[in-house]
Amino acid sequence: MYRKIMEYLKKWKESKYRKPLILQGARQVGKTYTVLEFGREYYENVAYFNFETNPSLNKTFDENITPDYLIPILSHIAGVTIVSEKTLIVFDEIQLCERALTSLKYFCENAPQYHIIVAGSLLGVAVNRSTFSFPVGKVDIKTMYPMDIEEFMIAMGNKDLTEMIRKSFESNAPMPAALHDICMQLYRQYLVVGGMPECVSLFAQTKDYVLVRHNQDTILASYLNDMSKYNNLNEIKKTRLAYDNITVQLSKKNTRFQYKLIKKGGRASEFENAIEWLNLSGIVSQVYKVEQIKKPLENYRDIDSFKIYVSDSGLLCAKKSLSANDILYMVDEINEFKGGMTENYVNVQLTINGHKTYYWESDRGAEIDFIIQRASDIIPIEVKSADNTKAKSLGVYMKKFNPKYAIKLSAKNFGYEDNKKTVPLYAAFCI
């Protein structure tokens, strides 16, 4: 399946400033598969090492971590001759071997001719919670996410549609009505299936939502196992409580995260470590409120006011045990959840595109779902789950801050009026 990150990996390979690459991201987003495919396509051979399936590898790094010592031994273990420039060296689940991570410093300094990519599902957790000697400044770092809706559409055989969507986004010209309806159907399918590559592959082959849900449940179970395996003993229960409660809070009219909703009397001091663990693992992301619309936005975030979204819309629906038909037909019974689910979807698309997202509230309660910086402009984004695009809050914001333009994401077709760019939800990947 087509993954956009391949373009980044090709540029990394050709860069004269290339360093060992750390590819991080949540479990099951396709890190290992993508790296191995990249290696097979662009190198003569791949030397692959997995610290989870082969824990005895740790002993090799315990003895010596200089490249001159490691390369002959790793060649023998992998059964391939590691040749500089021609072999891709892959360290998988590197969070399980601190010394292997430290060795990247010496590869960068003393043997930059070797091409190394390391992957880790819980690398953020390991680095922040252990005594890791992180090779600061000696590595390139890239975060990998689930497939976005454009990659999903391409996997479904609709590459031509994605090209038409991009043209309409740039020109603000509506898509033909029949194609708009098809794209909205694909959008709803994406909400159910999500962007986990194995789920997308299953759906592309079978169109069976039951099989997809089984796979999603397996991924969710692995996340729960990780919370036990890679967490402090006294934090396990709190982390699970917080994670289970995120989907509940997305069903509220006000989706701002509230500790008291995790449990009666819940406070930040009790659950902030659990929230941090979920963030570092890549399972969720926090979106902070900004108190002022000024650059840089990060300087004006309110650390006590934030929303939490999960990393994949399909896993969100699976966690809520919503049937495929509930989403495909947007039944009235899920009305309370539609807003939070749609916001979650948009945040995923914006995050994959590299945007740091925030939200804004006025003193009188007007709220803008997302604030991003696009090029040199601060852009407000209003999100609606249906085609009702009346947005009083957006009017308040525009009158107060006079942005270059605003974006309204909804079920409506493309358009542009009164400095408001109307974008259908399926085109969020264009932003």
Describe it for me?
The protein is an alpha/beta fold. The protein folds into two domains: 5-143, 3-Layer(aba) Sandwich (Rossmann fold), CATH 3.40.50.300; 149-430, no CATH class. Helix content is 45%, strand content 17%. It is built from 17 helices and 13 strands. It has helices spanning 5-14, 31-42, 57-63, 67-78, 98-110, 123-129, 149-155, 159-171, 177-193, 197-206, 209-229, 236-249, 268-280, 313-319, 324-328, 335-352, 392-401, and strands at 21-24, 45-50, 87-92, 115-120, 140-143, 284-290, 301-310, 358-361, 367-374, 377-383, 406-410, 415-417, 420-424. The strands form two sheets. An eight-stranded mixed sheet has the order 7-6-8-9-10-11-13-12, with helices on both faces. A five-stranded parallel sheet has the order 2-3-4-1-5, sandwiched between helices. It is globular.
The number of helical runs is: 17
Alpha-beta classification: alpha/beta
Q: Could you tell me the radius of gyration in angstroms?
A: 23 Å
- Helical content band: 40-55%
Low-confidence parts: none
N to C succession of SSEs: HEHEHHEHEHEHHHHHHHEEHHHEEEHEEE
Strand content: 15-25%
Strand arrangement in the largest pleated sheet: 7-6-8-9-10-11-13-12
Distance between the termini: 22 Å
- What would the average pLDDT be, to the nearest integer? 95
E-strand count: 13
- How is the biggest beta sheet arranged? 8 strands, mixed
The number of domains is 2
From the spread of the alpha carbons, the general shape counts as globular
